[in-house]
Prior knowledge:
By secondary structure, this protein is mainly beta. The chain has one helix spanning about 5-20, and strands at about 40, 45-50, 60-65, 80-85, 115-120, 130-135, 140-150, 155-160, 170-175, 180-185, 195-200, 205, 215, 220-225, 240-245, 250-255, 260-265, 275-280, 285-290, 300-305, 310, 320, 325-335, 340-345, 355-360, 370-375, 385-390, 395-400, 405-410, 415-420, 420-425, 430-435, 440-445, 445-455, 460-470, 470-480, 485-490. It contains 1 helix and 37 strands.
Amino acid sequence: MNRTTLSLIAAVTALAAVTGFAATTSGGADDAPAEAAAQLPVERSSLLCPTPGQSDLAETAYTSYTPPSKGTGGSGDTGGKAQLMPAQSGSSDTGDAKGKAKTPKAVVTPKEPGKPAAGEASGADAPALIGTADGALAPGWTVQQTTTVEAGTGRGLLGVDCSAPDTDFYFPGASTAKDRSDYIHLTNPDDEAAVVDVQMYGPDGAVKSDVGEGIQIGPHASVPVLLSTLTDKPYTNLTLHVTARSGRVAAAVSAADDKLGGDWLPAATDPAASLVLPGIPKDATSVRLVAFAPGQDDADLKVQLATSSGRIAPAGHDTLHVKSGMTSAVDLGELTRGDAGSLLLTSTDASVPVVAALRVTRGKGADQETAFIPATRDIGARATVADNRAKGSTLALTAPGATGRVKVTASPGAEGGTATTKEYTVKGGTTLSVPAPVPTGLKGAYALTVEPVSGGKVYGSRMLEEKQDDVPAFTIQTLPDDRGTVSVPESDEDLSILQK
């Protein structure tokens, strides 16, 4: 490789550090560690929040948080800007009835690292949001969208982490069944239109649909697509593969059930031969596993549950065969039986990757509610979840391999309080479920950050719950690395021009 080529690679890598883009590894539990490189704070982050819902009864809270980061001046550094602005609808209309340009108002405007910022929206007209953060507010910037719907289809607590734009997504666990109203929300943050294909895979393979091809999303716009309009046949269990032909988008599925409530189904981590799905509640009354093999070969999966005392094989469900290009689903019943756990999937052939997600149900009869747990990456250098409450936040941590120790920091509240920190040891092959630590003197929502201290990889999730009459309303968000830093190899080239 000649010097010109090396200079180009170094320049591209440095540009990644400036813009906040970085390559990530897959979410396998046994991934080899990446080659050592300098870790620099990202200088710009983009996040997109989907349209909260279709219900006039919806009340949505937004919580934004940037953890204090080394190299950015800490929590007192205000050198940066972040805001979440309303996206357009699928049309290009940006004016009022008289043709005057509308000036959108930021829904959330964070001020400094280390302090949460909050905002809210009401009703079915609440827009999708497009956000950017730079300077000290960029590293690890996290926004949680939490919606409460008191009645009707999809009632319950619906939560989702606003996500960074990308070009490729998998959603195992979607549905076009008659009792489900699932939408794929596509949001474009850029100045040019994006073109997206939505391919669905059922138990017999690809579902033919011309309607899902070439979906256009205008600049700075968001488009929800009802999945049942893409096929004439109802499918209880589907995997969506969303790819951008041009441009980039954020994507998330809102799943609403006539009887079982609803929640957001986030994208699963990249296909891998080993996957971790952390934080199945101890009182789960039903757990459904949905898996998909995107490659050319069938996958034979070893299925294990990491409990508080170690790994066990679910009775009658210790293996799962997933045919190539087809979606497989299995009902695991009351899997946890009073002991919170995490599902571990391992392909018997390390060259055969899969994607997977869980649909978890709590409650019984007419008082049931559901949430989703997609396979996720480990916490990496640091993971962040933004919206936590004084009551009802539960942290689940699992170490599928060696024992790991982590530090959990509860930030001040959006309206006051003092941060607090605790350390937890997660024994290898187990799941530790604990009430989330709460800052002293808490006022308002607060954030949690999880950082490794020593030992093996740790995966995590946070469950947020509240009572709605007799319904155990809840939502679960996984805890992958918050993208606060980017790996930059050392270079002897002068790249200062890229900083201007």
